[in-house]
Amino acid sequence: MKIEHVAMYVKDLKGARDFFVTYFGAVSNEGYHNATTDFRSFFLRFDDGSRLELMTCPSLEDPDKTRFRTGLIHLAFSVGSREKVDELTERLKSDGYKVLSGPRVTGDGYYESCVAGPEENQIEITV
């Protein structure tokens, strides 16, 4: 069994798509639009075959995204090495994204950083 895909609602659909394409090498489909409901989405595919569905619609609610809440809290991407964690973290920081933690070794031995990605959704970058 495997997780087929994860989905995320966003207000800025194209901006979120561009973030994952630019920084994580995602490949996007052409998108989907339901003219009746004005629902729109993109499926993004990553090198390992995993997929992320980005979605939007006019009736979205957008509560504050506190770091310590129930529910899905972050998306984690393995980039292959500590050096790549450091490089991508610095690139995101230089491009104006807020670094929430790291890069660092966590108490359970992971080397990671966390950034506030599109619409303050937490993105973890790890080896």
Can you give keywords for this protein?
9 strands; 2,3-Dihydroxybiphenyl 1,2-Dioxygenase, domain 1; 127 residues; five-stranded mixed β-sheet; alpha+beta; 2 domains
Low-confidence stretches: none
Please summarize the sheet with the most strands. Answer: 5 strands, mixed
CA distance, first residue to last residue: 24 Å
Order of helices and strands: EHEEEEEHEEE
What is the H level of CATH, i.e. the homologous superfamily of the largest domain? 2,3-Dihydroxybiphenyl 1,2-Dioxygenase, domain 1
Number of DSSP helical runs: 2
Helix content: 10-25%
Shape: globular
Assess the beta-strand content as a share of residues. 35-45%
Tell me the number of structural domains. 2
Give a count of the beta strands, DSSP E runs of length 2 or more: 9
The CATH topology of the largest domain comes to 2,3-Dihydroxybiphenyl 1,2-Dioxygenase, domain 1
* Computed Rg: 15 Å
CATH class of the largest domain: Alpha Beta
By secondary-structure content and strand pairing, the structural class works out as: alpha+beta
CATH architecture of the largest domain: Roll
- Please state the average pLDDT score: 94
